[in-house]
């Protein structure tokens, strides 16, 4: 009879541990496949469904149009009111005793990444009224607009609304596009301040023919995932939440090294070392436009307020690390605070009240609530819109720009 072979206890435990780990990894792989398979259908081209070419502004929203956005991070409905904005209906003549606040801006203000009642303007109105402030907030945000287009629209079309307060929300990519004649391939006005007036110098803008209209909302082709779905999800999460770890593992050969992309022109407004002539020109034109716009607001008996919308990488060190690695940025030559500093100086020299949303949005980052930005899209999520709205109402009240019932705190 042969000799019975017995394994040492530690080896048996090791085999049991390895077997358990393999089973666990197998279950996680199955779960990852389920998660990826259940991802929603993603579409693109929605903005072409509710905007139309404009010979002066480049494009504007089409009153009465509606569309549904379907993205991996949000599913929202967008409907355009009679004024041509993504908002509730507003009467041209404001109600007696009500403070009318007019908000100008781009996609952050249009707010297509959240449902309408979650957007910054609707939340600001709701918050103000809950605090005893009779306020009406009118959303005049349009996707893709830069400060020059917002100023042109206000000067030419906003006077009948008679706003008491005009808020201009500025995002960093507005600056360079204030001297650019195209935005993502679409023609836009090239404006200059001449004799105290904001003058488009390249009119009339080319208007697309009916044959060249948007092909409509289209489902986005998703590249199939090769190999392990679990590994794919881990890579996605590390790129967003732990870019330094991913970069280190990539250099160690465990993952594909993080590729370097060319630095977008708009991002160069954060470069602190060395002057870039085009960026200097863009800041000068932005200052001139805001100067004239502020004068126009005051001439029409309104109060101008400039609001800085920080990019996600301005409030999140992880996002800044990812940005620096993505574009090969040398942090010593760049300054995350540069845009807000420039805007604050412009506001001070041209008579605008200035609100920087950076502190409020930074304070909103936490383990329980998460970040106020969508990690992939980069716009505010509902939390971001709510935080911004609360900061705006607080600012307006502190500066006596929003009269409220004294009974309320």
Structural topology:
Layout: H1 9-37, E1 43-44, H2 47-50, E2 51-54, E3 58-61, E4 66-70, E5 75-79, E6 99-105, H3 107-110, H4 120-130, E7 135-141, H5 147-157, E8 165-170, H6 173-177, E9 182-183, E10 186-187, E11 191-194, E12 197-200, E13 218-219, H7 229-241, H8 243-251, H9 277-299, E14 303-308, H10 312-315, H11 317-327, H12 338-350, E15 353-356, H13 358-363, H14 382-398
Parallel strand pairs: 6-7, 6-8, 8-14, 14-15
Antiparallel strand pairs: 1-13, 2-3, 4-5, 9-10, 11-12
Helix pairs in contact: 1-7, 4-14, 5-9, 7-8, 9-12
Outline the structure in words:
The protein is α/β, with parallel strands linked by helices. Helices cover 39% and strands 16% of the residues. The longest helix is centred in the N-terminal third of the chain and has 29 residues, at 9-37. The protein starts with 8 loop residues before the first helix and ends in an 11-residue tail after the last helix. 35% of the residues are buried.
N-end to C-end Cα span = 92 Å
Question: pLDDT average, as an integer?
Answer: 88
Structural class: alpha/beta
- Radius of gyration based on Cα positions: 25 Å
Q: What order do the strands of the largest sheet run in, or round the barrel if closed?
A: 7-6-8-14-15
Helical fraction equals 25-40%
Shape: elongated
């Amino acid at each position: 009879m042969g000799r019975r072979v017995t394994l040492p206890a530690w080896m048996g435990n090791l085999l049991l541990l390895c077997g358990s780990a393999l089973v666990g990894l197998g279950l996680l792989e199955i779960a990852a496949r389920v998660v990826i398979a259940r991802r929603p259908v993603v579409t693109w081209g929605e903005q072409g469904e509710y905007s139309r070419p404009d010979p002066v502004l480049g494009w504007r929203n089409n009153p009465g149009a509606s569309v549904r956005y379907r993205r991996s991070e949000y599913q929202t409905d967008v409907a355009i009111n009679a004024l041509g904005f993504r908002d509730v209906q507003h009467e041209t003549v404001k109600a007696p005793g009500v403070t009318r606040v007019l908000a100008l801006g781009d996609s952050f203000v249009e707010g297509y990444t959240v449902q309408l009642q979650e957007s910054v303007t609707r939340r600001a109105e709701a918050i103000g009224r809950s605090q005893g402030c009779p306020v009406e907030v009118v959303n005049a945000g349009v996707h893709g607009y830069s400060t020059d287009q917002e100023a042109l629209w206000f000067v030419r079309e906003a006077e009948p609304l008679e706003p008491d307060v005009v808020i201009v929300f500025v995002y960093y990519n507005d600056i360079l596009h204030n001297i650019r004649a195209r935005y993502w391939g679409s023609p836009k006005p090239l404006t200059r301040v001449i004799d105290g007036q904001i003058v488009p110098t390249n009119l009339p803008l080319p208007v697309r023919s009916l044959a060249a209209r948007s092909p409509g909302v289209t489902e986005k082709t998703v590249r199939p995932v090769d190999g392990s779905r679990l590994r794919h999800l881990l890579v996605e999460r590390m790129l967003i939440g732990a870019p330094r770890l991913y970069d280190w593992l990539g250099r160690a050969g465990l993952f594909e090294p993080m590729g370097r992309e060319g630095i977008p022109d708009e991002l160069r407004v954060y470069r602190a070392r060395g002057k870039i002539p085009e960026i200097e020109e863009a800041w000068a034109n932005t200052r001139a436009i805001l100067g004239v716009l502020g004068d126009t607001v005051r001439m029409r008996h309104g109060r101008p307020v400039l609001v800085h919308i920080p990019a996600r990488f301005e409030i999140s060190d992880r996002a800044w690390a990812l940005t620096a690695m993505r574009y090969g940025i040398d942090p010593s030559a760049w300054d995350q605070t540069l845009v807000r500093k420039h805007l604050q100086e412009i506001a001070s020299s041209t008579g605008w009240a200035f609100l920087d949303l950076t502190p409020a949005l930074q304070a909103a980052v936490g383990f329980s609530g998460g970040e106020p930005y969508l990690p992939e899209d980069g716009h505010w999520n509902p939390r971001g819109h709510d935080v911004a709205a609360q900061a705006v109402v607080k600012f307006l009240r502190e500066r006596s720009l929003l009269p409220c019932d004294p009974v309320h705190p």
